[in-house]
Amino acid sequence: MESKSNFKRRDFLKTSTGAGLYLATGAYGNLLAGCSPEKPVRIGFVGVGGRGMGMLKVALSIEGVEVPAVCDIVEEKVARAQRLVEEAGQSKPTGFTGPEDYKKLAELNNLDAIYTATPINLHTPIMLAAMRGGKYGGTEMPACVEYDQAWELVETSEKTGKPCMLMENYAYMRNVKMVQVMNQLGLFGDLTHCECGYQHDARYAGFGPDGEMRWRAYGGQTNGNPYPTHAIGPVSQWININRGNRFEYLVSMSSRALGQNYYAEKKFGAGHPAATKKYAQGDVNTSLIQTHNGITITLYYDTKNPRPMDWIYRIQGTKGIYSGSLNKIYLEDKSPVPHQWEEIDNYASKYEHPLWKQYGEKARETGHGGSDYLCMLDFVQAIRNGTDTPIDVYDTASWSIITKLTEESVASKSRPVDFPDFTRGNWQVRKPVKFE
Questions:
Q1: Distance separating alpha carbons of residues 284 and 7, to the nearest angstrom
Q2: Are the CB atoms for 141 and 229 separated by under 8 Å?
Q3: I need a surface site. Which of 18, 105, 342, 392 has the fewest CB within 10 A?
């Protein structure tokens, strides 16, 4: 359940005329300062390690994108990013290396947006600084880990009229987008259930070369689903969360924690502290989500044991089903053989998402099967057009806060925990994002 302070904040904002008008439009309208197509889109990058450098390369491959500033506390990474921008034919970007220099980027007049790929605890502060500085914000996952952070992102976006986009690249995967098109056209009928999961062996990313714990180990003092957005993002778009439907509550439970101990013992030795440490995060977390429209969701987190990658991405309706695990589909009135799977590619020529039709060839040259490019492209086009981002601040908050809710449910023997309604009831009138 939300804390009393969160309820008070929500109730107070219900009475705010400005916030009510802002939400009722379902868009940012005149609050946004438009960016002419003739003008470049200028993005500052905060955090240019592995992920940040990857997305910097993607941004530089999009016509009209300029990078006037880069920021990282590691000077060598800033220098490397500056060289990359220069190699792309642009002027050397200004470099920032102070621990809070993202605030200086937010004050720059030659930026339209700030993108961040920093450690998770910095995502919210950087996005708040960006929006307060009159800039679009784009952040890696998750955007926030606490209720107050989520509400502050929403309130700041509403007050400034600047979007905060969770750069959830998995919402742009080819078959995920194709299923979105097919679902909007009614091929699956009335939906009843979805399934998704962040499931792959990520133990290698949890420890440094000497067994020191990295953020991907998620071992700390909490136990829930620490990384839900890759899984829940596509499903949320399929079932129109915050746009005619909403998450109502979830229940969650975690298995015992063994995987990191076994891995550390094998890699660093039985006596190593990483092998003997008691980890709070269970190896497998399973959550059940109930939505207002009666569609249920099973959400998994499983990265601590040896296993192949599998996002699941199942959508079930009264007329058919798609299984991401199999990457196959069955439609009762269309599939040629009753009760037998068929390849989803059989439907690509007719139901390919417009983004993939237009940009698929170029997108495939970038990371994560092309989804990195299309995600950044959507961000850039929103900035250029002065419009809201397809993944808006309400999605950003709703998808990210799942971590907090699962931790609360696990800690209280899987009791139901209510989702905050970041739209304050306006999900009932907001329109789904169409694929056209």
A1: 31
A2: yes
A3: 18
* Residues 113 and 42 sit within 8 Å (Cβ to Cβ): yes
Chain mean position to CA 95? 27
Candidates 68, 67, 84, 87; CA nearest to 76 is 84
List, for residues 71-113, the tens digit of each pLDDT value.
Answer: 999 999 999 999 999 999 999 999 999 999 999 999 999 999 9
What's the CA gap between 428 and 130, in Å, rounded? 29
Q: Report the distance separating Cα 99 and Cα 105, nearest Å.
A: 12
Compute CA distances 265 → 3, 207, 277, 304, 341, whole Å. Answer: 41, 12, 11, 14, 42
Strand pairing of 328-331 and 342-343? antiparallel
Q: What is the DSSP secondary structure assignment for residue 34, as one 8-state letter?
A: P
In this structure, the dihedral spanned by the alpha carbons of residues 397, 402, 405 and 407, taken in order and rounded to 10 degrees, is -130
Closest residue by Cα to residue 224 from 329, 158, 145, 117: 145
Give, as one character, the DSSP assignment of residue 92. Answer: P
Model pLDDT for residues 277-311, shown as the tens digit of each residue: 999 999 999 999 999 999 999 999 999 999 999 99
**H/E run at residue 417:** strand 417-418
